[in-house]
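job 3f2a | input accepted
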Amino acid sequence: MERNNSTMVTEFIFLGLTQSRDIQFMVFVLILIFYLIILPGNILIILTIRSDPALAAPLYFFLSNLAFLDASYSFIVAPRMLVDFLSEKKVISYQGCITQLFFLHFLGGGEFLLLVVMAFDRYMAICRPLHYSTVMSPRACYIMVLAQWLGGFVHSIIQVILILRLPFCGPNQLDNFFCDVPQVIKLACTDTFVVEILMVFNSGLLSLVCFMGLLASYAVILCHIRKSSSEGKNKAMSTCTTHVVIIFLMFGPAIFIYTRPFRALPADKVVSFFHTVIFPLLNPVIYTLRNQEVKVSMFKLLTRHIVC
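job 3f2a | predicted structure (308 res):
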């Protein structure tokens, strides 16, 4: 394929989430409310964990990283979506589209791997408590987080390389409100069957394998908790239940979108909206609401600064 064909399309036009002005206004208000309330909440979670020595355990270190990932992830799609609601023509450059797609999968893949790390942390804390302090040392935690970022980068760069090799010579209308693999591939001026299969293996298989592995891990952990008679049984059960809820929120939409051939379904846009805009902002908040230590520390931090 010739490279000059692949540069014929210099921009893409988003068809948007919906053509209804009323629905667009409702979604605009919803996203704005989430940004004004929950995004600062995520930042507060990070500041609370970083400033309180009592929250130095690996669980809170990973939670602060999750809040950072989700806050960063929410900046990829939602701000541009808000601007597009106010624009007649929703246009993004070819380079901007590739950039958005890269960061979407870089942070999304990193978050999936971070949830795997958090599951391993809970397994060691509950099922192997005598080895926990040795295995989950500060150095090991930093290495795990670094590996999570590296894994997200590798996952994303594979997607980008495969798409950059495709020729785009028209049409240039994306039936979505952001750039993602299924919609972009469909605009290529060549047969994309092999690329679609590779993408399904890279994104869909990653999602499915991580999801099944996490469910199996937490099934083992929950069974161990039920058999134990320790004082922290209820706390451990609450923490793990919260993790399982987040797993379903994150992996459910990803499996729906990426583990099937890239054919458009009526529910695609709605699932993508919750997956890329709503759930990332909610995840750390859900964790925090079920964690008494973080809530108490957050209250102390707010009180201290308000008094000052």
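job 3f2a | The chain has a mean pLDDT of 86.
job 3f2a | closed
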